[in-house]
């Protein structure tokens, strides 16, 4: 193996992070990226992401992209308010004032960036010849001259390693395991409040260039500021199965129709604060409905020479701890180290990749457990958020504390959550 020949399936933020890291730290590697989208901006990619100090930001620093990231990062976007349906504030995290400040979140900084901007930043940092846009992968398979990837027209083989980074329904994962993501009992609708400062100034003021999360029993409304001045409005709620929201006969509305969706959502938030209802009423453009899926907590796959997984392909989870893309970018950084340490030794590469997969499963299980705990606390606790706060803060405190301090952290988190649950602050608008 004079130099590793690596295929990355998926040009999302995680796949592009790995490619960029290889470009910087393993310049002799041959890298090909297969991506079904025809360009980085081909489709809607959701709202914004907050990158974390020890994971997403660490990967960007290793990739030599922090200066470029800082052109788009919004440190004031760290502002987070967690409220009930009457906009009583239970948690208010203040934003950082600068990139070198410690940040107001446990675990360090969490600057925001719009998801499409992050993907474009990463994709633009790669040699143009590396990415095969519009390649709709049919399957991956072992071959006599190395692992191969096939679309509807041809097979490309000879790879020392194929990395599945193509999300929840990964075809690379299917050659390693029969395990599929399961429905997480939740759907959400995404709307867009354009030019919010002008069209809904009171909503804009309440969001304060960051995020406002509004919880009630079995549902949640999020308002998140974007870099272009818009606010992404999402409504999450429990639904019996993953076909319900796409079947008008069952749910009673067309989830792709903006007016019908807004009418249905207004019924769900009819007892919410006027600002929440205003954000929905004044949204324009498209309406997008999606289901949430998750792999089992602690999912592992048996090692197979020539294949591995990163990102959602390895550990798709719901977004309620804000960890998904950060864990995926950490995956990319750890896999880079495994590849680099192997040098030109094919057997060592295989051994390193096997060890990487085993370590990833353990590391990702912590995040998946936290995320699923947050899902259960927020959506399956009566009298949310008041009664959910002790559970949530206990979990977060335990997660971010050293092992010996975890019991104390959990106790303090529970106590603070109980206090805030009974004595919230009123929002000022």
Can you walk through the features of this model?
This protein folds into 3 domains: about 5-75 and about 110-180 and about 295-370, FAD/NAD(P)-binding domain (3-Layer(bba) Sandwich); about 185-295, D-Amino Acid Oxidase, Chain A, domain 2 (2-Layer Sandwich); about 385-425, no CATH class. Helix 1 (about 15-25) runs parallel beside helix 11, helix 12 (about 345-380) runs antiparallel to helix 13 (about 390-400) and helix 13 (about 390-400) packs antiparallel against helix 14 (about 405-420). It contains 14 helices and 18 strands. The strands form 4 sheets. It has an 8-stranded mixed beta sheet with strand order 16-12-15-14-13-4-5-18, sandwiched between helices. A 5-stranded parallel beta sheet has the order 7-2-1-11-17, covered by helices on one side. It has about 425 residues and is an alpha/beta fold. The protein has helices at about 15-25, 55-60, 65-70, 115-125, 195-200, 200-205, 250, 260-270, 275-280, 310-315, 325-340, 345-380, 390-400, 405-420, and strands spanning about 5-10, 30-35, 50, 80-85, 90-95, 110-115, 130-135, 140, 145-150, 155-160, 160-165, 180-195, 210-215, 220-225, 230-240, 285-295, 305-310, 425.
CATH topology of the largest domain: FAD/NAD(P)-binding domain
Strand content: 15-25%
Distance between the termini: 63 Å
- The 3D shape can be described as globular
Mean pLDDT: 89
Tell me the name of the CATH homologous superfamily of the largest domain.
Answer: FAD/NAD(P)-binding domain
Main sheet record = 8 strands, mixed
Helix tally?
14
Write down how many β-strands occur, each being a DSSP E stretch of 2 or more residues: 18
As residue ranges, the low-confidence spans are none
Helix content: 25-40%
Task: Supply Rg.
Answer: 22 Å
The appropriate CATH architecture of the largest domain is: 3-Layer(bba) Sandwich
GO molecular function: FAD binding; monooxygenase activity
Keywords: FAD, Flavoprotein, Monooxygenase, Oxidoreductase
Pfam family, one: FAD_binding_3
Protein name: FAD-binding domain-containing protein
């Amino acid at each position: 193996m004079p130099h590793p020949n690596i295929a990355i399936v998926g040009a999302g933020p995680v796949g592009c992070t790995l490619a960029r890291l290889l470009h910087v730290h393993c310049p002799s590697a041959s890298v090909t990226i297969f991506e079904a989208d025809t360009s980085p901006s081909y489709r809607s990619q959701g709202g914004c992401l907050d990158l974390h100090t020890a994971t997403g930001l660490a990967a960007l620093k290793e990739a030599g992209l922090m200066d470029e990231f800082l052109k788009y990062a919004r440190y004031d976007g760290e502002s987070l308010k967690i409220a009930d349906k009457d906009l009583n504030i239970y948690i208010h995290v203040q934003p950082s004032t600068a990139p070198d400040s410690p940040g107001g979140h446990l675990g360090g900084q969490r600057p925001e960036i719009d998801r499409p901007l992050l993907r474009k930043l990463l994709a633009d940092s790669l040699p143009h010849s590396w990415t095969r846009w519009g390649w709709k992968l049919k399957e991956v398979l072992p071959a006599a001259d190395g692992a191969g990837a096939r679309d509807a027209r041809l097979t490309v083989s000879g790879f020392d390693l194929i990395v599945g980074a193509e999300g929840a329904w990964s075809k690379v994962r299917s050659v390693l395991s029969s395990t599929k993501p399961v429905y997480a009992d939740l759907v959400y609708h995404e709307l867009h409040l354009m030019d919010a400062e002008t069209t809904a100034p009171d909503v804009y003021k309440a969001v304060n260039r960051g995020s406002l999360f509004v919880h009630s029993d079995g549902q949640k409304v999020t308002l998140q500021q974007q870099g272009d001045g818009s606010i992404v409005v999402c409504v999450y709620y429990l639904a019996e199965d993953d076909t319900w929201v796409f079947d008008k006969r069952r749910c009673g509305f067309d989830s792709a129709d903006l007016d019908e969706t807004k009418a249905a959502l207004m019924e769900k938030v009819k007892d919410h604060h006027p600002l929440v209802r205003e954000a929905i009423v004044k949204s324009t453009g498209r309406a997008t409905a999606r289901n949430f899926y998750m792999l089992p907590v602690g999912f592992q796959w048996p090692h197979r020479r020539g294949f591995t997984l990163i990102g959602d392909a390895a550990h798709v989870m719901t977004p309620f701890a804000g960890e998904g893309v950060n864990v995926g970018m950490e995956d990319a950084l750890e896999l880079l180290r495994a590849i680099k340490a192997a040098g030109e030794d094919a057997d060592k590469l295989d051994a390193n990749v096997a060890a990487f997969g085993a370590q990833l499963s353990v590391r990702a299980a912590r995040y998946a457990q936290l995320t699923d705990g947050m899902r259960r606390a927020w959506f399956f606790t009566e009298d949310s958020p008041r009664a959910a706060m002790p559970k949530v803060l206990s979990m977060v405190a335990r997660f971010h504390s050293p092992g010996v301090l975890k019991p104390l952290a959990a106790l303090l988190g529970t106590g603070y959550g109980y206090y805030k649950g009974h004595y919230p602050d009123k929002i000022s608008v």
